[in-house]
Amino acid sequence: MTSDRKAWAAPPLATSGSDLGALLALLRHRILVYARAKVGPAEGEDLTQEVLTVLVEKYSHLDSLEDLVPLSFRILHNKRLELYRRLRRDRSPEPLPASPEMPADETLLERERRRLLREAITLLSGRCRELLRLQLLGYGFGEIQRLMKARAINTVYTWARRCRESLRSEIERLEGRLASDG
C-alpha cells in the first residue's frame, strides 16, 4: 500500500517553465504506474508510449500540468478501451468439437424449427413475405421503400415491425397446435 502511494507521489508534478519535454518526463511516471496497474507491465509500457506520442503530436501547444494531467489520463483511458476491443476482436473462436455432426435429437429439433418457420411464412400476407425476402437479401429500408413503392420510410419500418409480430404469432400458434396434437 505504501509503495503504491510512493509511486503516485514521485516525482512531484510542480515545475517551473513551460518546456513540454520536462512536463512529459514528469507526467510519464504517473501514466506508467497507472497503466501498469490497469493492464500489466508490458501493455502498460506500450500504452504509456502511445499516450506520450499523442500528447506530443496533437497537444504540444499545452504547457501546464493542469491541462496535461486530465488530458493524458483521458487519452490513457481511451487507449485502454481500444486495447480491450482489439484483444476481444483478436480472440480466436471456440474450437470445434471433435465430431462436427449434431446429435440426432438436435438435428430433428432444428429440422422441425425450420419447417415451422417455413409454414408460418406461407401464412403471412404477400407484402410481409416480400418484405422479409428483401430484408434477407440484404436490402436496407430505403431500398425496400423504393422497391415496394412506399410513400415514407416510416411506413416500411411499421410494415417490418408488424410482419415480425405476425410471424412471431404464427409460429406461436403453430407451436401451440403442434403441442396440442402431440
Task: Give structural notes.
By secondary structure, this protein is an all-alpha fold. It has 2 domains: 2-90, no CATH class; 119-181, Arc Repressor Mutant, subunit A (Orthogonal Bundle), CATH 1.10.10. The protein contains 8 helices and no strands. It has helices at residues 2-9, 20-39, 41-58, 65-90, 104-122, 126-136, 141-147, 153-181. Helix 5 (104-122) crosses helix 8 (153-181) and helix 6 (126-136) packs across helix 8 (153-181). It is elongated, with a radius of gyration of 30 Å.
Intertermini distance: 67 Å
**Order of helix and strand elements from N to C terminus:** HHHHHHHH
Strand share of the residues?
under 5%
Q: pLDDT below 50 for ≥5 consecutive residues: which ranges?
A: 1-17
Mean model confidence by pLDDT:
81
Number of helices: 8
Structural class: mainly alpha
The portion of residues assigned to helices is: over 70%
* Sheet with the most strands, sense and barrel status: none
What is the overall silhouette?
elongated
Estimate nothing, just give the exact number of structural domains: 2
Number of DSSP strand runs: 0
Radius of gyration: 30 Å
Element layout with pairings:
Layout: H1 2-9, H2 20-39, H3 41-58, H4 65-90, H5 104-122, H6 126-136, H7 141-147, H8 153-181
List the keywords.
Arc Repressor Mutant, subunit A; elongated; 8 helices; mainly alpha; 182 residues
Q: What's this model, at a glance?
A:
The chain has 8 helices and no strands. With 182 residues, it is mainly α.
